[in-house]
């Protein structure tokens, strides 16, 4: 009886299943389905403004907020970008601490200068916000041109070309970082000290980074004869 | 599936017989052109006999259909009886009353008694009522002369063609309406569009299920094209309900901030302190967080019994406070979080952040809840570590190509 019941059961269990076609599609590039997910709004000013009625974010899912994108009051796009550029082997906390310590040094330096300034006019000329100082320094370090490598007949030409603002910003940051790393090499000084000094100099259009930018401009100038290769190079 | 195939073949056979039976042709002359999916032979109705009258031919075709229907009925009765018996045995084995046994209990019992490690879900053992396993045979009505009343019977996919016809009629009607408006106004009609973003057409399988007929990819494309057209013409919103029967929402949020996957906890009142509190669960990767927040607080924040000041990482602190920072509610709630599972300086705060956001969403207005949603705080981060691939150093990274 028992055996029979199990046989009956087994027969019921052997249900027909529809054949599944072999998947030939590409593997998913992201778990966030691009048709179903939109980027989050992490700017608090934008967040309080009502969306348009036909805005897709009214109907689609929103991606989770990034861990380094919390809308704190000191969130600064340029500083965040620089932190990511200084990042080594994923140690974000270290990179962030170094950059913020440099900003603190700048604040102290500027405040000291502000205290010492005798007149109100001189006082108001001193920028006390280190974030503003930093972004202005980066702006000062941005090159106006870039050089593209082009190989023709076995000779590598450096072709000067106009640079997009985002790339110029990146080049400035990279140059600043490399110079600071070089200064802090083998414990000669700390990265944050070097960075603070460099930023303060760059703010006044002085220092190694500005010098590097000017040398780069000279290089562009020297290669201006190849500028007509630009259409082939890009 | 076998039943559905043979049934459609017979329909096919019947259709063919009936089509060629027009006029004074005899059944004997019907060319037997088996289609590619024919598994059964065409019923030799009246083959090798003398000329027959039309009425008789039709009734024979109908007979085939009726015989099929009867056979199917019998089969279903048998299967139903076997299912009931199996269910009783299962109840005996599992020590449950048969009357209380739901399909969920059956599934659980099958999973317990026949554990399967097969990857394909369709290959695992199942026990379901026969109505769900075998395609139902749609009842076809015939008139006195033996002809099917529904003229679309001969198309073999009556529901599909009926839907296409409906769409075409609705399209025509809307275009006529737009013409009338244009004639009245003397200008092109202005009309609010249907918002299509946030929803897609249901899949081919779902269409098959809705129609009760198997449809091919071409037929699916036809349907979608017709519906797309209907959706884009002026005054389409008049047929919104009809169109949205065949669209599925992508699960996005609404203005009140309730989106698919988000959880809105119930606000309770603490009997001793009289303060309102809510409890929620949050997660990230394999980290789990159980969060309770009390309102009318001072901003006290404990994670596994430790205060937020013991968290050195500033980024982790930011993440823990993110929901309150976003809604400018710092220092108004007390948070108590407990975490389980692995996790570090990113995972644990992310899991707690989700739990806190869910809790906070229960205390705030619809607008604020929508702000939490738009900031991405009500979404569980679904990203996981991608496995590395064979013959590659990483998940996507490839070895450098070297000639030799």
UniProtKB/TrEMBL annotation, chain A:
It comes from the Eukaryota. CDD domains: uS7_Mitochondria_Mammalian. Residues 70-224 form the Small ribosomal subunit protein uS7 domain. The keyword Membrane does not apply. One of its GO terms (cellular component) is ribonucleoprotein complex. InterPro entries: Ribosomal_uS7, Ribosomal_uS7_dom, Ribosomal_uS7_dom_sf. Keywords: Mitochondrion, Ribonucleoprotein, Ribosomal protein. Gene3D superfamilies: Ribosomal protein S7 domain (1.10.455.10). It holds the Pfam family Ribosomal_S7. The keyword Ribonucleoprotein applies. Belongs to the universal ribosomal protein uS7 family. This is Small ribosomal subunit protein uS7m. It comes from Plectus sambesii.
Automatic annotation (TrEMBL), chain B:
Gene3D superfamilies: 3.30.230.10. Keywords: Ribonucleoprotein, Ribosomal protein. GO terms for biological process: translation. It comes from the Eukaryota. Residues 28-54, 384-404 are annotated as: Disordered. One of its GO terms (molecular function) is RNA binding. GO terms for cellular component: mitochondrial small ribosomal subunit. InterPro entries: Ribosomal_Su5_D2-typ_SF (IPR020568), Ribosomal_uS9 (IPR000754), Ribsml_uS5_D2-typ_fold_subgr (IPR014721). The keyword Flavoprotein does not apply. Transmembrane segments: none annotated. Belongs to the universal ribosomal protein uS9 family. This is Mitochondrial ribosomal protein S9.
């Amino acid at each position: 009886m028992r055996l029979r019941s199990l046989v009956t059961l087994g027969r019921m269990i052997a249900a027909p299943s529809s054949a599944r076609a072999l998947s030939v599609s590409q593997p998913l590039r992201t778990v966030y389905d691009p048709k179903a997910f939109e980027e989050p709004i992490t700017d608090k000013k934008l967040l309080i403004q009502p969306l348009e009625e036909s805005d897709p974010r009214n109907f689609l899912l929103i991606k989770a907020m990034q861990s380094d994108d919390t809308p704190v009051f000191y969130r600064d796009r340029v500083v965040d970008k620089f932190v990511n550029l200084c990042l080594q082997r994923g140690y974000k906390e270290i990179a962030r601490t170094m950059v913020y310590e440099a900003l603190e040094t700048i604040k102290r330096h500027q405040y000291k200068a502000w205290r010492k300034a005798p007149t109100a006019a001189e006082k108001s000329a001193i920028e006390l916000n280190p974030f503003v100082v930093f972004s202005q320094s980066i702006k000062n370090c941005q090159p106006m041109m870039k050089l593209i490598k082009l190989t023709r007949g076995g000779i590598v030409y450096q072709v000067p070309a106009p640079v997009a603002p985002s790339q110029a910003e990146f080049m400035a940051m990279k140059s600043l970082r490399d110079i600071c790393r070089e200064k802090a090499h083998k414990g000669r000084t700390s990265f944050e000290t070097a960075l603070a000094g460099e930023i303060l100099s760059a703010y006044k259009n002085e220092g190694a980074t500005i010098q590097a930018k000017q040398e780069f401009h000279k290089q562009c100038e020297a290669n201006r004869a190849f500028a007509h290769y630009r259409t082939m190079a890009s | 599936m076998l039943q559905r195939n043979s049934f459609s073949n017979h329909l096919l056979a019947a259709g063919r017989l009936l089509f060629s039976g027009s006029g004074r042709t005899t059944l004997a002359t019907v060319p037997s052109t088996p289609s590619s999916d024919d598994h059964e032979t065409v019923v030799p109705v009246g083959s090798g006999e003398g000329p027959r009258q039309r009425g008789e031919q039709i009734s024979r075709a109908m007979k085939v259909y009726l015989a099929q229907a009867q056979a199917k009925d019998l089969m279903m009765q048998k299967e139903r009886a076997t299912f009931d018996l199996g269910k009783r045995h299962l109840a005996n084995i599992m020590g449950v009353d048969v009357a209380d046994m739901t399909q969920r209990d059956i599934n659980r019992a099958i999973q317990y008694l026949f554990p399967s490690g097969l990857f394909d879900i369709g290959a695992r053992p199942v026990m379901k009522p026969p109505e769900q396993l075998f395609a139902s045979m749609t009842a076809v009505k015939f008139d006195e002369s033996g002809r099917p009343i529904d003229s679309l019977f001969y198309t073999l996919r009556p529901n599909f063609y009926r839907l296409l016809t409906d769409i075409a009629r609705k399209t025509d009607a809307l275009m006529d309406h737009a013409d009338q408006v244009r004639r009245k106004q003397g200008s092109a009609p202005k009309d609010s569009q249907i918002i299509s973003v946030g929803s897609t057409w249901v899949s081919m399988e779902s269409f098959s299920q809705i129609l009760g007929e198997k449809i091919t990819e071409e037929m699916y494309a036809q349907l979608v094209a017709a519906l797309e057209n209907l959706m884009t013409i002026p005054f389409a919103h008049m047929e919104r309900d009809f169109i949205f029967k065949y669209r599925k929402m992508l699960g996005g949020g609404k203005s009140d901030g309730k989106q698919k996957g988000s959880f809105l906890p119930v606000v309770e009142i603490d009997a001793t302190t009289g303060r309102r509190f809510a409890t929620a669960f949050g997660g990230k990767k394999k980290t789990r967080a159980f969060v309770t927040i009390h309102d009318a607080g001072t901003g006290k924040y404990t994670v596994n019994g430790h205060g937020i000041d013991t968290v050195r990482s500033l980024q982790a602190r930011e993440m823990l406070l993110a929901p309150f920072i976003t809604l400018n509610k710092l220092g108004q709630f007390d948070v108590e979080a407990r975490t389980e599972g692995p996790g570090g300086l990113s995972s644990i705060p992310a899991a707690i952040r989700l739990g806190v956001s869910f809790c906070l969403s229960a205390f705030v207005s619809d607008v604020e809840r929508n702000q939490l949603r738009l900031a991405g705080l009500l979404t569980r981060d679904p990203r996981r570590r991608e496995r590395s691939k064979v013959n590659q150093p990483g998940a996507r990274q490839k070895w450098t190509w070297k000639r030799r």
